[in-house]
Structures are given as C-alpha cells and as structure tokens.
Amino acid sequence: MSSHGPAQKMTARAGGPLKGIAHVPGDKSISHRSLILGALAVGETRVSGLLEGQDVLDTAKAMAAFGAEVTRHGEGDWSIHGVGVGGFAEPEDVIDCGNSGTGVRLVMGAMATMPITATFTGDASLRSRPMGRVTDPLALFGARAVGRDGGKLPMTIVGAADPVPVDYVTPMASAQVKSAVLLAGLNAPGKTVVTERSATRDHTERMLRGFGAEVVTEQTGEGYRITLTGRPELKPQTIAVPRDPSSAAFPVCAALIVPGSDVLVPNIGLNPTRAGLFTTLREMGADLSYENEREEGGEPVADLRARFSPDMKGIEVPAERAPSMIDEYPILSVVASFAEGSTYMPGVHELRVKESDRIDAMAVGLRACGVEVDETEDSFTVHGLGAGGVPGGATAAARLDHRIAMSFLICGMAAKQPVSVDDAGPIATSFPIFEALMRELGATLLRPNA
Ligand SMILES: O=C(O)C1=C[C@@H](OP(=O)(O)O)[C@@H](O)[C@H](O)C1
Ligand SMILES: C=C(OP(=O)(O)O)C(=O)O
C-alpha cells in the first residue's frame, strides 16, 4: 500500500504579477504509453522529455517488474529494452501503481492476454476507484479478475492463456478503457475492435501506429471505431514527449486571473483531443494566444501566451467538449470564479471517479472561498465574482488529488485572502516542479509547517 508521507500544507497568496517563461514537464499520458509500448517492443526504445512524476515512475517500476529493462540516463532521458508482444514475465511481487488510474488500467490491459498472473494495488485514492470498467472488457478476452468490494484494488488479474479478440463499445468516454482494450488486443490473434461514442485522447492509437501496429480509426454512425490487428511485432522507437497541456493549464490560468500577468508556456502539445480548455478560455474572453504553431512528432504544438484578462465572462461549456478537457474542469472552475456571470459545465459525471470526486472537492473548496456554486450528479455551475472578486481565506482539502491541490493554490494567487491546501504532496504525481515553476513566475507560495 503506497502513500506519499506526511501532509504538506501549502498556502498561496496574492502578490505581484506573474511574468516569464514556464517550461512545464512532459505529457503524462504520453509518458505512461512510452514506457508500456517500449516494454512491448523488441529492442531499445529511447525517450526524452519523459515526465518524472510519481505516476509515471510507478509505471516504469511496473514495466521492470514485468521483465523490461528500464534505465534512466539523465533528466527525462530514459531507455526501455522491451520484451516483445506476449513477452511479459510474471511479476514476483504486488504491482503498486500509487495514485495513477492511467498506470494501473493500461498495465492491466497490457498483461491481460498473457499467461501470467499479477496483483495490483495503489494509494487510498486509487483503491477507491472503479476497475470494473477495464476488467469487464478484459474478461471478454478470457482474463479473470478478483478484486475487493466488487471491483476495486487490490485486485488480481489472471491473464488469458488463449486469448480471443474482442469487439467492444466503451460504455463511458474513457481513453483509459479504450487503451486497456487496445493493449490487450495486441496479444490476441485477429482483429480487436473498440468503438467510442465520443472521441477521447488518441495517444494510444497514434503511438501504436508509430511502433508499427496496424490501427485503423473510422467514423461511423455509432462514433469512432478503432480496429487493431493483433500480434504485431512492435519496433522500438525514439520518442520526444511533448509538454503536457494539462500541466500548462495551471500557469496559463494563473496568468489570466492575476493582475498584470504575462506568461509564455512554450512547446505545448495541442492534440485536439486534449485542447478543449484553451478553446473554452478563449470563448470566455481570455487573452490567450497560440504562437509559433507547428507539428512535432505527428502532434500539433504551439507556445501559449496568457495575459491577465479582467473581462472574462461565464459561458456554457458544451458537454461534447468534456473528453478533450476532462482533467481541466477543476482549474476552469477557479477561472470561472474570477469571470463575470455563471459558467455552466454539463456532461461531467466522470469527474466523480477521478483521484477524488472532483465536483464535490471543488464545490466544497470554492464555497469555503466565498464562491457560489451548484452541482448535479452530471454538472457543475460556478457563479463568478469577476476579476479580483473571490474572497478566499480558506483551507481546501486536496483529497489525494494533485489537480485539486494545484487549482486551489492558483485560486489563492488571485483571491483577496490567502488560500491553503491541507496537502500539496500529491502534486508530485503529475507536476513535481509546480512549486518552483510558479515561484519563478513570481507567485507567493508558503509552506507554513516547513
Ligand atoms: O488515458 C489517459 O492517459 C488518461 C485518460 C483520462 O482518464 P479516463 O480515461 O478515465 O477519462 C484522464 O482523466 C487521465 O488523466 C489520463
Ligand atoms: C485523472 C487523472 O489521472 P489518472 O486517472 O491517471 O489517475 C489526472 O491526471 O487528472
């Protein structure tokens, strides 16, 4: 059972403007996939710009436990000597995925069609999250799962010795479920098909193609139908991980709400399945521009420039945009608190099963900061108080959720009174340099217990 040690209280308070260049770390989704696909290729994959957040480090450890040779050569510079599709060894111990839903679900998929057994666990947050969403489709391949409390970690997966390919429609918009099915399909003979009603992040499909697998995506009346031809030989790759738009969201949003700010966030991956927040912010009237737009490694990339935007207005965020900004609703809710009028966010029930129930975590914390909000099972509404209008003066519970912790610290940078989080430790799962980077831009972050 993992945990990150004693709680690290942190406080943010308003100071001067935020200025400068913010180099955020590598993309978390692409980092996990680089390690997993590298482990399934034959030979050595080289990765630069790998996110060295705890979530990804736990996936690196998992790949070593399944028999890949994983080596760190320098900051963000890693190699994975893969064992080939079907080549995982049975791990000798429990696989601890820490706080990472992506890590555990993708690794479960990758091993589920091999004749091996593995037991997975994680921290208290991950042990509360549903795994049935991946074990249901993995059972169709012939894998068996035994978990606690109707489908939670700790959980043992007995991989299928004789897997069959699967044709599966994902019941919820989830790139993790889609990816688990595709990774399992790698070691099933014939064609595995996964259909999703709305497009979720497509890094697995893009990267599988890059590693030499045949993956075809078609748009049908039902949605997006992805067909993978099983048992390919994956060829090792050289991967430059783009910088994470979900991490870029924090300095960008901070600049929008802190008076006088002007921040450049270079080299951000703007895959359309990830960039929904930036579209939304522009619709709200944010002074946010894309500079130096280009393509890198098959992904659109740009430098983001964000300036203080005192005239942002609340909007309705289209429900169909949710998958492309699913991790960004907590920080959008903070920006919405500093806009004029209400921001209505429908179609967000998936937020209830993230590292925390993010609707409840934001609702409780924002109310404590003096912001009026409404929630339903599937929607969240923030009644904005305009630039400089949020009272603050509260401590929010981070609930083992990095995005909740970072969101309330950004809130404190622009609120009238300081805002604290009870534990900033979880930030290290996705954005270990958050504190240093925000300080470098001019933010005032205090550690009252240090
Ligand atoms: O596939 C991925 O890398 C991810 C998919 C999303 O989860 P869901 O698949 O549960 O929506 C997202 O919230 C998570 O941070 C990363
Ligand atoms: C939901 C997230 O991650 P995961 O599901 O991988 O824990 C996230 O990073 O916001």
Chain-wise SSE layout:
Layout: E1 10-13, E2 19-21, H1 28-40, E3 42-48, H2 54-65, E4 69-74, E5 77-83, E6 95-96, H3 101-111, E7 117-121, H4 132-141, E8 144-148, E9 152-158, E10 167-169, H5 175-185, E11 191-196, H6 203-210, E12 215-220, E13 223-229, E14 238-240, H7 245-257, E15 262-269, H8 276-283, E16 287-296, E17 299-307, H9 329-337, E18 340-346, H10 358-368, E19 372-376, E20 379-385, E21 392-396, H11 402-414, E22 417-421, H12 434-441, E23 444-446
Parallel strand pairs: 2-15, 3-14, 6-7, 10-11, 21-22
Antiparallel strand pairs: 1-22, 1-23, 3-5, 4-5, 7-9, 8-9, 11-13, 12-13, 15-17, 16-17, 18-20, 19-20
Helix pairs in contact: 1-2, 1-3, 1-6, 2-3, 3-5, 4-5, 7-9, 7-11, 9-10, 9-11
Phosphoenolpyruvate (PEP) binds next to helix 3.
Describe this structure in words.
It catalyses: 3-phosphoshikimate + phosphoenolpyruvate = 5-O-(1-carboxyvinyl)-3-phosphoshikimate + phosphate. Pathway: Metabolic intermediate biosynthesis; chorismate biosynthesis; chorismate from D-erythrose 4-phosphate and phosphoenolpyruvate: step 6/7. The protein has 450 residues and is an alpha+beta fold. It folds into 2 domains: 10-26 and 242-446, Enolpyruvate transferase domain (UDP-n-acetylglucosamine1-carboxyvinyl-transferase, Chain, Alpha-beta prism), CATH 3.65.10; 28-240, Alpha-beta prism (UDP-n-acetylglucosamine1-carboxyvinyl-transferase, Chain), CATH 3.65.10.10. It is built from 12 helices and 23 strands. It has helices at 28-40, 54-65, 101-111, 132-141, 175-185, 203-210, 245-257, 276-283, 329-337, 358-368, 402-414, 434-441; strands at 10-13, 19-21, 42-48, 69-74, 77-83, 95-96, 117-121, 144-148, 152-158, 167-169, 191-196, 215-220, 223-229, 238-240, 262-269, 287-296, 299-307, 340-346, 372-376, 379-385, 392-396, 417-421, 444-446. The strands form 6 sheets. It has a 4-stranded mixed β-sheet with strand order 21-22-1-23. Strands 2-15-17-16 form a 4-stranded mixed β-sheet. The chain has a 4-stranded mixed β-sheet with strand order 4-5-3-14, covered by helices on one side. Helix 3 runs parallel beside helix 5 and helix 9 (329-337) runs parallel beside helix 10 (358-368). The longest helix is centred in the N-terminal third of the chain and has 13 residues, at 28-40. The two termini are 26 Å apart. The mean pLDDT is 97. Bound molecules: shikimate-3-phosphate and phosphoenolpyruvate. Shikimate-3-phosphate is lined by residues 29, 101-102, 174-176, 179, 201, 326-327, 350.
